[in-house]
Amino acid sequence: MVRRHVLTNNRLAVTHLVILVWKHRFLLGVPWILVLLFPPVIPCSNQENPTPTSESPRPTSSSHFEQAEALARLGKDSEAIDEYQRELLDNPNDEAALFGMALAQTRLGKNSEAVQSYLQTLRIKPDLWEAELNVGILLAGEQDLHRALFHLERAQILNPKSFTASFFTAKVQAQLEKSVEAEKMFSKALELTRSTDEKFDVYAALGAFYAKQKNYTKAEQAFLQARELQRDTEKMDFELAKLYYDSRQSTKAQTLMQSLDSSHSKDPVVYGLIGRLLAESKDNDGAAKAFERAIQVEPNPSRRQEYYLLLADIYQDSGRADEAIKRLTELVVTANSPEVHFRIGLLRLHKRELDDARLEFLQVIKMKPDYAEAYSNLGAVCMLQENYPDAIAALSRFKEAKPGVPGTYFYLGVAYDKLGDYSNALANYGKFLELGKGQSDKLEFQARERSKILAKKMKSR
User: Fold this and answer.
1) Which residue in 33, 35, 30 sits closest to 20, CA to CA?
2) Whether residue 397 sits in one domain with residue 416
3) Which of 25, 45, 163, 355 is the most buried (most CB within 10 A)?
4) What residues of the chain score a pLDDT lower than 50?
5) pLDDT by residue (tens digit) across 105-118?
């Protein structure tokens, strides 16, 4: 039994070298990419180990654990897991087998199972900081941030000299908006860096952290420091361009974007930013091309919808309403949202395609009954169609949602006036004049003059 205990400890010392490392991307909240570092192969004798291949036979070893390790090195993770489980049947408290199985499960994308294996490892060996780190990273990848932070902070306490533990603790603290703690932990991670790549990672993450806080000065400093640490500066230049755009420094953003060769980029965010910058400079044709390209390469439905809406704005501003309607109608097929129908309704209304506009606004209301602006525009359509009862119904719903809009009362007054309901017409004209306070001289003149006429008519009755 004593010999068995020593063997477990020796195996664990090797297994500890296997730590999950997550390579972050520039913006907080972007999914992290998993990279697994395998342990070195330790020879059993002075004879050099042969290089394993996919054709290698199933290894024969003295224990299930050793067979599992050999299979894992060959990339046969499913078979390795079977051997780890056989080892655990014989030795349920074998933390090395649990740790190795968790790594194999992670490589197979079985993250939930890997989390449970790590937690079981920690129940046996509570001070195993590598397991705390790995389970924290897995939970962060699943956006289970509060649980992730518990384990990452525990890993950092157990090994305060670990760059990885400090860095990922800071990232999760930042995502949970624990700003003071995150800033301190980023600083600690920076002190622990041992390579240019690690320094770059921290400065890039700090730039994103400060940008999210709208601390643009510190964000710029961090991004510039990150830029100095990379030969390929294109990605950091793009991060800086986004920062300058967000901080209303469009000239700086445009200068950076002009220096980048984005013609072959597959990143939709690149084209989205180009489109926004060109739209600000009134280059509508260039902006439209950029947004069209962003739509082609954007896999995320919500962001693709955003680019469609921006593209529709460009076409509308260019007097190309039909193209805007066409693109938004295409969007409805994949993103049947009330916002898209509303935008199509506005374009139809602008073109005086009243029946089609009415259908779009009714669809918006069907999908989202509390969409106030849909009632307002439906009321406008009904007024143009001289359908005053429906106009009153729609405008009244808008008034309930937003009672402080003066124009609503003017058009309600007109609708009641047309129907001969002089009492309600006078009441709404009066409310309009009360709220308007000189905002529209023309409408106020009409309301006063019409109120005088209606008052006389009511007296003569």
Assistant:
1) 35
2) no
3) 163
4) 1-61
5) 999 999 999 999 99
